[in-house]
Amino acid sequence: MAPTRTTLATLLLAALLVLLVPDAAGAGVVVTRVDQPAASVRDYWTRQRMREAEPVPLPTPDQRSAPAGPEAGGSPTYVPPAGPGGPADAEILRGTAAGGRATVGVATPVLDPAAADKRMHGKVFFRIVRGPKPGNYVCSGTAVNSRNRSLVMTAGHCVFDWEDHGGKVTEWAFVPAYNGEDARPYGTWPAKRTATTRQWRRGENLRYDLGAAIVRRNPTGRRLQAVVGARGIGFDQPRRQRYDIFGYPVEGTFVSTFEYACSSPYRGSDGAGGGGPMPMRASCNMSGGSSGGGWIGGGTLLSVVSYGYGTQPTSLFGPYLSDTAKKLYKRMRGSARP
Length: 338
Hints:
Layout: H1 8-13, E1 17-21, E2 29-33, H2 38-44, H3 47-52, E3 54-55, E4 77-79, E5 93-94, E6 108-109, E7 121-128, E8 135-144, E9 151-154, E10 169-176, E11 189-197, H4 198-203, E12 211-215, H5 224-228, E13 232-235, E14 242-247, E15 260-269, E16 280-283, E17 294-297, E18 300-304, E19 307-309, E20 312-318, H6 323-332
Parallel strand pairs: 3-8, 13-18
Antiparallel strand pairs: 1-2, 2-11, 4-5, 4-13, 6-15, 7-8, 7-10, 8-9, 9-12, 10-11, 11-12, 14-15, 14-17, 15-16, 16-20, 17-18, 19-20
């Protein structure tokens, strides 16, 4: 691994302040403030480090089946997508954001990741500094419409690595439309806050493997959503619809610098995890590195890549977004604008 340019002072600034945010239902959201200067994070992620970063392994689910918890927190709701520079009202509306008919579950390269309807997807980079496997890691993420115009949704294990590393994540950054020719056509967006659900943070419950990050402005003062636009996000939406799944798989035959996409109908639920809504299954053969990649229906984020089984290499699983996911979104979307 290339020598780090991070100074001792910067490492000290990387200390994270963890705030536990309670709610009436006891579900909770855990928010972490990231004190690293944006410039040092951008400097850290050289092209070489990006190329050499390893995929976060998809979590290994407990084979024991658990009963389903509450399916819905209420009527279906969603936040519509937003174009670059568009209004950032990010109002939560009642209704569904259904997709179209599904095609196949084989991942194919996205020909133009910088296209207007694709560039809100990107690659997540972060560093683990403690535990048995320190190093640089990658996941996937999606810019989502929010009042602060700076929100990225991903998997919980891409902001807090419960399994192997003692949890601490530093140098977290989102690179929209990452590709092999021009690694960061829209720049590198370091996080100033990350968050996950209490169920993931405290017990690795895969039914709540959901994460979020508020990213800083770019060097010219622009916000992420003003540059690349944003997907909508839906809660308590119908399970049975088409999902277009985006991600950056690294393992196996996949080219690590390419973005890939699958298309799949709903393939059923899974009993992994503890209590809560059962995870969803889709046909998709993406591997490690796709963690956190968005499941999109009707332009709207409806789940993220969470885990898979070695015995089911053509299936991926993601959490069903319901009441706790909505609380995570509302906690991270920012305040209403006057």
